[in-house]
């Protein structure tokens, strides 16, 4: 998979490396900005309140 | 020579090629699965970084900004002179100081214990299932919640609080000094009676001026709740320089 991506990136090895880095940073940004904030409340790691219902917190 | 070699190649080719291509396809599939698994592991690792570090960065920044705004607001009202206006609770009602959780431990207290409020890196006072009292009420229990990990992790060191430690609630006009008298290091999240106006679980039977801190325990999970109860000892008027009470010295 990564080999396939590498082969399909344009330019020589240096250009490919730079493009890969930008892609990785873009993916990390998307994860931190949108994916993780969305996923976090769905996971049971951070309920801090007492309540009968059980989801807030 | 070259031609013979070539001919030889084409002669041997069909069978080996087919075998090689078949093996290649299996190998490729396995390597894609492997790469996906590695990617999944990296994403999970990043999620840990996100929840234990990045959310703190964001929440601390936001809490700092909002705390500054509340203090500015107070200073303006004081500078304006005259009788203090009606208390503005929209931005936050005050600050909680707990020397046992760190020398300069201070957290802004805002209304509500919803995820949105607590994720700002503040402590929230309960509005549900039992409404919190305010520190200036004649009797009642001031009930607060904050994150143990991530999003500011304001109550991370709640286990450092011992019986007899001071909890100080700072409002615009007054310092309310509480003393811890009971700790429940593990209870169910359904145990809503811990935030009753008279917290019977802490052994109290008469109305009084109490404070209750709640968060999750053990650290990094939400299995149980950790509860700390305190009782008002004294109050101290806030002066113009906001000299903190002796308990915070």
From TrEMBL, chain A:
Annotated transmembrane regions: 12-36
Upper classification of the organism: Bacteria, Bacillati, Actinomycetota, Actinomycetes, Kitasatosporales
Designated name of the protein: Uncharacterized protein
Alphabetical UniProt keywords: Membrane, Transmembrane, Transmembrane helix
Superkingdom per UniProt: Bacteria
UniProtKB/TrEMBL annotation, chain B:
CDD domains xrefs: Sortase_E
Pfam families: Sortase
SUPFAM superfamilies xref list: Sortase (SSF63817)
Keywords per UniProt: Hydrolase, Membrane, Transmembrane, Transmembrane helix
Membrane-spanning ranges: 26-54
Region (Disordered): 1-20
Domain of life according to the entry: Bacteria
Keyword Manganese: no
Protein name (database record): Class E sortase
Organism the protein comes from: Streptantibioticus rubrisoli
